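Sequence, please.
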C-alpha cells in the first residue's frame, strides 16, 4: 500500500469516525506494510493499540478493502515488532510487544457470496432505544425476523452517528443466527460501485448480475455515495427491481431522505419511497443519558473499580448532543484518562479532559439542521425551500429558516444566501427582518420560531 492510498483511507476514516475520534485514536497510528493479506500498523502504546483494535479495527479493514487492497485482517503492534496476537490493556509494560489482530469481526459466508464483516458490538441488545429511534428500531427488528414484511425496501436515514449502521449490522447479526440458510449480502454503496466497475473492466457483468440477483437479503449502507454516478445507479436500479419482483428483502441506509438526494436517479428515489422510509432523529437528553449509562455498565464489567462522580453523566448528556459517536468518544477518552492515571472521573476532570469537545458542542446548530427541521415542521421538501417559488406556503418557511440561520449560527448573510440556492444577501436580510416583524404581530409565527429554536438547541 502506498502512502497515497493510506492517505485516502485516512480521509475516509475521518468521515467515518468523526474528528474527535480520528485525532484521539487514528492519528497516532502509522501504516507499516502489507504481508500475507495482513495490514500491519504501528501504535505508540499498548492502550491505543487495544482500543483501536476493539473499536475501529473493522472500520479500518472495511476502508482498506474499499480502497482495493486484498487484505483479510489488520494488526497493530507497539514499535512495529512482531508478536503473536494478544489482548492488551493500559497497564501492559510500555516496552513489551503488544499486538491486537482484527480479522472481519463476524465473517459471514454464504455459498460463494462475498464475505462481509460485522461489528460485534452492533447488536440489538447493545442498541439503546428512545423516542428518536424507536420506529427505526421496531422496523429493523421486524425485518431481522426474516419473514415476510409489508414494506420493502426498508430505508433508514439520518445524520452521522445516529445509529443507521448499528441497526444494519444488528439485522445481519440476527439473520445470520436465526436464518443461516438465507443468502445475505451486506456492503456499502461504495463497495457495490467498485464491484460493478471491476466487472465492467473484466468484461464479466453477467457474473455480477447473477451474484446480486441470487441473494435473499441485500443490505446497502450509505446509498448517497452512488448519487450522480450514472452507470452504477443504472445497475443498482435493475438489481433493485429484480430482487423486489422476486420478493427478496432490501435494507438501505442514507444520510438524507430519497427525495432530498438531488443527484439520485428519480426511478431509484421513487422505488425507495415505495417502501418504509424511517428517519433516525437526533438524540434527545434521555436517550443520550441511557447510552452513557449502558457504556458505563459495560466498562464496569471489565474494570469494577471504575468510579464516576455524581452528575458527570448528566452533564455530558446535556452538553454533547451532536451525535452518538462524539458522545461515546468523549466517554472513551474519560475512561482512558481515568485508567491511565488511576483516578475517579470527577466533574473538574471531565470539563478539562473534554474541553475541545465541549467547545465544539457549543456550536452545534448548523444551517443543515435548521433547514431540515424547518422542512419537517412545515411538511416541505428541502428542494422546495431552495426553489425559486414565491408561493406563501413555501416563502414564509424559507424566511423562517433564513431567520434561524442568522440567529443561531455565526454565518454571514452572503454565506446563508449561498446555502439557500445562491440568493443575494439582501434577500436574506429581507427574510430575517420580515420574520422579526411578524413575530411581534403574528402569534403563530412567534410560536413556530420559538418551537424551532428549542428543538434545534435541545
Amino acid at each position: 500500500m502506498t502512502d497515497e492510498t493510506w492517505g485516502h483511507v485516512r480521509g475516509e476514516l475521518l468521515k467515518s469516525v468523526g474528528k474527535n475520534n480520528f485525532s484521539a485514536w487514528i492519528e497516532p497510528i502509522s501504516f507499516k506494510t502489507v504481508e500475507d493479506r495482513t495490514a500491519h500498523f504501528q501504535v505508540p502504546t499498548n492502550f491505543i493499540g487495544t482500543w483501536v483494535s476493539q473499536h475501529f479495527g473493522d472500520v479500518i479493514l472495511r476502508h482498506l478493502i474499499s480502497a482495493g487492497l486484498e487484505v483479510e485482517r489488520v494488526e497493530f503492534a507497539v514499535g512495529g515488532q512482531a508478536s503473536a496476537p494478544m489482548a492488551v490493556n493500559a497497564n501492559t509494560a510500555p516496552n513489551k510487544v503488544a499486538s491486537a489482530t482484527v480479522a472481519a469481526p463476524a465473517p459471514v459466508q454464504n455459498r460463494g457470496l462475498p464475505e462481509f464483516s460485522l461489528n460485534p458490538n452492533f447488536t440489538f441488545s447493545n442498541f439503546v432505544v428512545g423516542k428518536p429511534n424507536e420506529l427505526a428500531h421496531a422496523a429493523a427488528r421486524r425485518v431481522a425476523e426474516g419473514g415476510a414484511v409489508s414494506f420493502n425496501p426498508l430505508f433508514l436515514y439520518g445524520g452521522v452517528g445516529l445509529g443507521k449502521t448499528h441497526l444494519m449490522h444488528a439485522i445481519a447479526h440476527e439473520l445470520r443466527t436465526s436464518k443461516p440458510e438465507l443468502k445475505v449480502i451486506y456492503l456499502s454503496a461504495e463497495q457495490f460501485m467498485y464491484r460493478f466497475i471491476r466487472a465492467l473492466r473484466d468484461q464479466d457483468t453477467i457474473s455480477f448480475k447473477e451474484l446480486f440477483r441470487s441473494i435473499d437479503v441485500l443490505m446497502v449502507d450509505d446509498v448517497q455515495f452512488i448519487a450522480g454516478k450514472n452507470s452504477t445507479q443504472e445497475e443498482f436500479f435493475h438489481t433493485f427491481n429484480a430482487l423486489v419482483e422476486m420478493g427478496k428483502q432490501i435494507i438501505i441506509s442514507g444520510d438524507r431522505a430519497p427525495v432530498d438526494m438531488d443527484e439520485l436517479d428519480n426511478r431509484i428515489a421513487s422505488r425507495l419511497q415505495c417502501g418504509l422510509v424511517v428517519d433516525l432523529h437526533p438524540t434527545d437528553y434521555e436517550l443520550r443519558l441511557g447510552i452513557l449509562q449502558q457504556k458505563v455498565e459495560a466498562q464496569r464489567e471489565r474494570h469494577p473499580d471504575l468510579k464516576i462522580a455524581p452528575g458527570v453523566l448528566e452533564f455530558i448528556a446535556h452538553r454533547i448532543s451532536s451525535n452518538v459517536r462524539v458522545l461515546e468518544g468523549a466517554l472513551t477518552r474519560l475512561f482512558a484518562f481515568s485508567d491511565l492515571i488511576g483516578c475517579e472521573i470527577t466533574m473538574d476532570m471531565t470539563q478539562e479532559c473534554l474541553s475541545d469537545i465541549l467547545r465544539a458542542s457549543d456550536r452545534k446548530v448548523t444551517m443543515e439542521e435548521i433547514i431540515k427541521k424547518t422542512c419537517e415542521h412545515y411538511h416541505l421538501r428541502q428542494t422546495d425551500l431552495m426553489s425559486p417559488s414565491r408561493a406563501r406556503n413555501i416563502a414564509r418557511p424559507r424566511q423562517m429558516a433564513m431567520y434561524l440561520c442568522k440567529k443561531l449560527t455565526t454565518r454571514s448573510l452572503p454565506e446563508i444566501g449561498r446555502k439557500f440556492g445562491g440568493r443575494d444577501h439582501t434577500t436574506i436580510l429581507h427574510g430575517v427582518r420580515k420574520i422579526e416583524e411578524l413575530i411581534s404581530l403574528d402569534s403563530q409565527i412567534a410560536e413556530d420560531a420559538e418551537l424551532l429554536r428549542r428543538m434545534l438547541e435541545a
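Strands lie at 30-35, 38-43, 73-78, 99-103, 154-157, 184-188, 217-221, 249-254, 276-279.
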